[in-house]
Amino acid sequence: KAGVTQTPRYLIKTRGQQVTLSCSPISGHRSVSWYQQTPGQGLQFLFEYFSETQRNKGNFPGRFSGRQFSNSRSEMNVSTLELGDSALYLCASSLDRTHNSPLHFGNGTRLTVT
Amino acid sequence: AQSVTQLGSHVSVSEGALVLLRCNYSSSVPPYLFWYVQYPNQGLQLLLKYTSAATLVKGINGFEAEFKKSETSFHLTKPSAHMSDAAEYFCAVSDVGATNKLIFGTGTLLAVQP
Known about the structure:
The complex is a heterodimer. Chain A has no helices and eleven strands. Chain A is mainly β. In chain A, the strands form two sheets. In chain A, strands 2, 4, 5, 6, 9, 10 and 11 form a seven-stranded mixed beta sheet that branches. In chain A, a hairpin with a 5-residue loop joins strand 7 and strand 8 (74-78). Chain A is globular, with a radius of gyration of 13 Å.
């Protein structure tokens, strides 16, 4: 069974640009969550989608947005990029929203903003 | 609010020695706790989870953790370290009412000396 797939693996953008990251969950998984990992702030929750609806949102500015499609694939978008947005963005999927279904993480997209 | 604290950002052990990584939690309700491992340039892999079924939880790769309510701890142990255990380890707690919103500790980087 294929794991969580994130594309692209690496991305370099310029300040002020926008970026879209993609995540394909494990087949059959309906929940997709996004996390940001930086050396200074560690791992921080961005948002969670389930059945194409945002279910939870972390404490990030409105420049960070996401969506989920009917096939459970998800995208996140960051507009007006800032230097501080440089990070590893991790996507995780789970079967459902119970504690019996743990999160499975992808290998991440490393975004560098110059 | 839920939180976890990992004591020791760096731990070094000799190959074959006991591994002990510390995690204390703060929770207003019975917590759901997790340990994840991250190898360089990869995402997070679930080692084990505590969901109140048993206080001693066995995970993958020979790791286990014991939930101690009296000490609000969920320390990760492995009897004998292997070189392949060198990685960063994260303790996490599930947020109240938001199953897939994990709150992570700051991580412990484990080095294994030959």
